[in-house]
């Protein structure tokens, strides 16, 4: 029941206290009926229009291209075979790289690109991206691992990255200069580190995503608000070919099983590790040079070795492409929310994405490697709450090679010039950080192909959906005073971090139905977020809500009670019977390495 004139407070026990609230809650029911992300409306619209751009793939590259193109006034359709950000875009290491690693390759172009893209993330998504301090311990006996050589490298990097904070007005979101740490300071920060030969550390800052799925969802929401037709669970079965021009795609709506034809002037294949399979199986196109993908694996542990600082430790592989090479590549132990995120391990995979897995034996080997690198860590398998992996564009490597060559740059392929097929472009991204810049280049090419006026990309300075926040700490303080619902602080901060300046859209659901203002036990996610995900963000499964729309289960299994309650809320909304609800709960529970009640 709506309570448009009441102001209420949720206490620690979940009880609700009402008192008079002077202003009325706006009635959003009619607005919700016509949301740009109403799935049935979008599905019918897809086959009715000829779009300037049709995008296949709803990961971060496809979503960013949709947002960019919609901001430049193009009509856009985006279809995704599963859920938005279901694969690598939600499973990666959540780092936003500033390019300091490219110093060892003496690659100034990639450094400058990375600085620009990290700055754009911090500027346009201040609720979702933060600076992240990274500590690299230094030891005697190795010139390349010496404290002062790393210090020199950071000094050079800071000069190259002179404009790293341009347009970032909040000091909290600015990237500081690199600096050196003393031996005693490092031992205070990381007591379990190997002390023998330790001379101190070098510390620099990169960026980190608070919620990688919400980054993609914000891009999708932004594109939809600018008129794009976006749809998940819509699998592209083939390209529509008219002589030597691709004019659209034939798709299948997995929710109904019905075929849908989507026509466009240009088709963008942004299907990530599926992209080259689509080209091969539908058009007989083999990319030249070919593409290789690495299964990048990391895992979460429910303890933090540091509240603020990343620890870089030396693994057991090296970088064959670096000009100034250290003795081994780094593994990272990263604070993320209430967890430590540990990784990354790379294994080249040639099979289709559906066939790729990470085995218990492999995870055990990774645990052994990181424990050897940091003796005080002592992780065991039972501590792992989530293991994540995704397929990332990689360099050319011989089968079974230990020291792997990383992917260097994303691939933007104009199939008209490459293969004589008009109307088709492929974009295969190398890492999340580069998505905005590569999307901008892609849309530039689309404008050229459809003879549209050249309009510059606006995504470097336009806030993402929910990112219209100049100073996040100031915004937080203002909202704590003005929010009509009094949540516990961790719950309220979760709302601000995930939805940013749009968080009141979620809170309004709780204002209309007070029981939705209560968080699931042991979590910071309120029940209103479930209905919001279903009605406003095209959530179709329990996994969509638990793993991607909210932070309910992205860090660990929230427990059977929370999953069942969430399934009941979503099932009531979507019309699920009892059997469907059980199937959904079992599927999500199977995502976790350790299933507990």
The profile of the biggest β sheet is: 9 strands, mixed
The tally of helices reads 19
Structural class: alpha/beta
Based on CA atoms alone, the radius of gyration comes out at: 24 Å
What is the CA-CA span between the terminal residues? 32 Å
| Overall 3D form | globular
Uncertain regions: pLDDT < 50 for 5+ in a row? Answer: 1-34
Mean pLDDT figure: 90
Let me know the number of strands.
20
Percent range for helical residues?
A: 25-40%
| Beta-strand fraction estimate | 15-25%
3D architecture notes:
The chain is α/β, with parallel strands linked by helices and 597 residues long. The chain is 34% helix and 23% strand. The chain has helices spanning 29-33, 39-46, 60-71, 88-91, 108-124, 147-160, 183-189, 212-225, 275-283, 360-373, 415-419, 435-449, 472-482, 489-499, 503-512, 528-536, 542-549, 560-574, 578-589; strands at residues 6-10, 16-20, 50-56, 76-79, 95-96, 129-139, 179-181, 198-209, 229-231, 234-242, 245-253, 259-269, 292-301, 310-314, 330-336, 339-349, 384-394, 411-414, 424-428, 485-486. Helix 3 (60-71) runs parallel beside helix 8 (212-225) and helix 17 packs parallel to helix 19. The longest helix is centred in the N-terminal third of the chain and has 17 residues, at 108-124. 47% of the residues are buried. The model is unreliable at 1-34 (pLDDT under 50).
């Amino acid at each position: 029941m709506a309570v448009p004139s009441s102001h209420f407070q949720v206490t620690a026990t979940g009880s609700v206290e009402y008192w008079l609230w002077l202003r009325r809650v706006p009635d959003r029911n009619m607005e919700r009926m016509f949301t740009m992300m109403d799935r049935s409306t979008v599905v019918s619209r897809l086959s009715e229009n000829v779009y300037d751009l049709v995008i296949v793939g709803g990961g971060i590259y496809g979503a960013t291209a949709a947002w960019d193109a919609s901001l430049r006034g193009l009509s856009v359709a985006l279809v995704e075979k599963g859920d938005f950000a279901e694969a690598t875009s939600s499973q990666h290491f959540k780092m936003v790289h500033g390019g300091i690693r490219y110093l060892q390759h003496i690659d100034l172009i990639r450094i400058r690109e990375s600085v620009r893209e990290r700055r754009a993330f911090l500027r346009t998504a201040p609720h979702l991206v933060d600076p992240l301090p990274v500590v690299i311990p230094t030891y005697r006996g190795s010139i390349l691992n010496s404290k002062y050589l790393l210090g020199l490298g950071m000094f050079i990097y800071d000069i190259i990255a002179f404009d790293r904070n341009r347009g970032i007005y909040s000091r909290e979101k600015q990237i500081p200069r690199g600096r050196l740490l003393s031996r005693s300071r490092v031992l205070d920060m990381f007591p379990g580190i190997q002390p023998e030969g330790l001379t101190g550390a070098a510390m620099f800052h990169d960026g980190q995503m608070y919620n990688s799925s919400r980054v993609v969802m914000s891009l999708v929401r932004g594109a939809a608000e600018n008129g794009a037709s976006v749809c998940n669970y819509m699998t592209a079965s083939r390209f529509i070919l008219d002589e030597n021009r691709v004019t659209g795609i034939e798709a299948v709506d997995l929710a109904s099983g019905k075929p849908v034809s989507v026509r466009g002037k240009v088709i963008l294949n942004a299907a990530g590790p599926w992209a080259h399979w689509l080209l091969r199986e539908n058009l007989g196109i083999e990319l030249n040079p070919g593409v290789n993908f690495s299964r990048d694996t990391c895992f979460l542990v429910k303890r933090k070795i540091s509240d603020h600082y990343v620890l870089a430790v030396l693994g057991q592989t090296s970088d064959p492409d670096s000009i100034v090479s250290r003795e081994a590549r780094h593994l990272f132990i990263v604070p993320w929310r209430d967890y430590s995120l540990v990784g990354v391990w790379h294994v080249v995979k040639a099979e289709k994405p559906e066939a790729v897995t990470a085995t218990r034996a492999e995870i055990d080997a990774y645990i052994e490697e990181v424990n050897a690198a940091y003796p005080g860590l002592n992780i065991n398998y039972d501590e792992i709450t989530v293991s994540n992996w995704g397929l990332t564009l990689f360099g050319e490597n011989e089968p079974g090679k230990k020291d792997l060559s990383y992917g260097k740059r994303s691939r933007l392929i104009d199939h008209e010039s490459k293969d004589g097929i008009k109307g088709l472009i492929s974009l295969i991204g190398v890492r999340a950080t580069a998505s905005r810049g590569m999307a901008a280049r892609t849309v530039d090419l689309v404008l050229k192909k459809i003879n549209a006026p050249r309009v510059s990309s606006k995504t470097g300075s336009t806030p993402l959906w929910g990112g219209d926040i100049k100073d996040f700490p100031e915004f937080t303080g203002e909202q704590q005073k003005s929010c009509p619902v009094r949540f516990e602080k961790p719950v309220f901060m979760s709302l601000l971090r995930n939805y940013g300046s749009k968080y009141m859209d979620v809170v309004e659901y709780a204002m209309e139905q007070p029981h939705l203002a209560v968080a699931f036990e042991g979590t910071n996610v309120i029940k209103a977020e479930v209905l919001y995900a279903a009605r406003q963000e095209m959530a179709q499964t329990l996994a969509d809500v638990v793993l991607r729309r909210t932070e309910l289960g992205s860090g660990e299994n929230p427990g059977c009670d929370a999953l069942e309650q969430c399934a009941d809320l979503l099932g009531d909304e979507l019309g699920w019977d009892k059997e469907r609800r059980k199937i959904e709960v079992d599927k999500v529970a199977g995502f976790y390495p350790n299933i507990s009640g």
